[in-house]
């Protein structure tokens, strides 16, 4: 299926992994795919969605509010004028390297659980593969269906957005919370493709 993806659609799929990793999430969900689509405001589809009020910054803030992420505390401290790197350096100078590192989580019972947790953490920290959620996989399948249904031989980034809005994933929930009905997203993208909704 991925051989049918255009370069921009592939870039969005790869970008979703970057978005998930930056947030410290151990999965790629529909929310990460949509963040990756919106990452480049120069893309026609990102401009169309921005016209609806759907931007990377707004969606990112909603993802962090809903799921948490690495950047929520750091940006809040930066807004208050606190340089987290300077604080870390001073604490480590006073108390030694790693003084602010979190305590290890309590291990799960059983060897299988511990191995699974360590493998997942190692993959994420080492830049390895992050698995797709079920709804993200479904949205990729739906992107293929959108492409075929619209008579295209390729899967465009617009088809990916259409698939995301049909999948039962967090992206549609977050888009709705931001005041943009998924049906409006679909209509706008289809209009951009030159098709009636």
Description:
This protein starts with 6 loop residues before the first helix and ends in a 5-residue tail after the last helix. With 197 residues, it is mainly α. It has 2 domains: 2-70 and 130-192, Double Clp-N motif; 71-125, no CATH class. 64% of the residues lie in helices and 0% in strands. The chain has 11 helices and no strands. The model is unreliable at 104-108 and 121-126 (pLDDT under 50).
Rg (CA only): 19 Å
Q: Average pLDDT value?
A: 83
| CATH third-tier fold name of the largest domain | Double Clp-N motif
Report, as a whole number of angstroms, the end-to-end distance. 25 Å
Total of domains = 2
CATH architecture heading of the largest domain: Orthogonal Bundle
Percent of residues in helices comes to 55-70%
Low-confidence stretches: 104-108, 121-126
The CATH superfamily of the largest domain is identified as: Clp, N-terminal domain
Question: How would a crystallographer describe the biggest sheet?
Answer: none
Provide keyphrases for this structure.
197 residues; mainly alpha; Double Clp-N motif; 64% helix
Structure in a nutshell:
The chain is mostly helical and 197 residues long.
Topology:
Blueprint (H helix, E strand, L loop, with lengths): L6 H17 L6 H9 L5 H8 L4 H12 L3 H9 L4 H12 L15 H15 L8 H16 L7 H10 L3 H8 L4 H11 L5
Helix pairs in contact: 1-2, 2-4, 2-10, 3-11, 8-9, 9-11
